[in-house]
Amino acid sequence: MTVLTGVATLPAARVEEAVKIHGIGATEVRALDHVTVDFPARRFTAIMGPSGSGKSTLLHCAAGLDTLTAGSAFLGATELGGLPDRRLTVLRRERIGFVFQSFNLVPTLTVRENITLPLDLAGRAADGQWLATLVDVVGLGDRLHHRPSELSGGQQQRVAVARALASRPEVVFADEPTGNLDSRAGAEVLGLLRRAVDEMAQSVVMVTHDPVAAGHADQVLFLADGRLVDAMAAPTAERVLDRMKAFDPRTEAGR
Ligand SMILES: Nc1ncnc2c1ncn2[C@@H]1O[C@H](COP(=O)(O)OP(=O)(O)OP(=O)(O)O)[C@@H](O)[C@H]1O
């Protein structure tokens, strides 16, 4: 197994010469084509690109939800490709937080129980002060004993963000976290991810189609046809939209 040294400068996650081929033979699709990218610690990175450009594949391979066909994926200094399934499961549970488009809360559990679920599954005690901070930041202190069905979509996604942060993961990977939300609820969720980075020293990687969402990030990576084609520091929604139009005038952003 490859072990990276120089821990102080390590990115939170990294993929190196990542290739992912889905399917075989005539149905083969090269979803990632030699992508090398760092996801810096304590930064908010957005991944953008046209539909089918490989965004979700990159996120899933970087997060250990899927395996690369060739190349390497690292979480900190740990190479994921070298891990047996059981250790990968533990790594995902203990070192990574996930937020999905469809909130994925457990309907029978309360808000509080949903937030602490990853810790409960790992048999770890909740850090009371950290949980109190999270509950305060997500603004759901008066809803802790409600069920997900009693919450709005935006509130449910805020619970999902709190759940992702509960174990103080090394990276939160978010796949279209605002895709099912109206713009106001989406802005609240994005503000929460931003605060997790700025005030709680967390690292966030988010796939999005939305230039406004990408405008909350510290850097935006642009994929096209499975390749990393550009990167933008200190993005704004307007600059991201312009860049998307320049890449592919046929995309929605270009219409
Ligand atoms: N399990 C799979 N089996 C076969 N092909 C797949 C699979 N998953 C993804 N693909 C293909 O790989 C390519 C990249 O897909 P991916 O979902 O990563 O793109 P994306 O940029 O996230 O797209 P979208 O924005 O539409 O979600 C696409 O051509 C897709 O059809």
Structure description:
With 255 residues, the protein is an alpha/beta fold. The chain has a single domain (42-64, 86-254), classed as P-loop containing nucleotide triphosphate hydrolases (Rossmann fold, 3-Layer(aba) Sandwich), CATH 3.40.50.300. Helix content is 35%, strand content 24%. It is built from eight helices and ten strands. The protein has helices at residues 55-62, 85-95, 111-122, 128-138, 153-165, 183-200, 211-214, 237-247, and strands spanning 13-22, 29-39, 44-48, 70-75, 78-79, 96-99, 171-175, 204-207, 219-224, 227-233. Strand 9 (219-224) and strand 10 (227-233) form a beta hairpin. Helix 3 runs parallel beside helix 5. The radius of gyration is 18 Å and the shape is globular. The model has no long low-confidence stretch (mean pLDDT 91). The structure holds adenosine-5'-triphosphate (ATP).
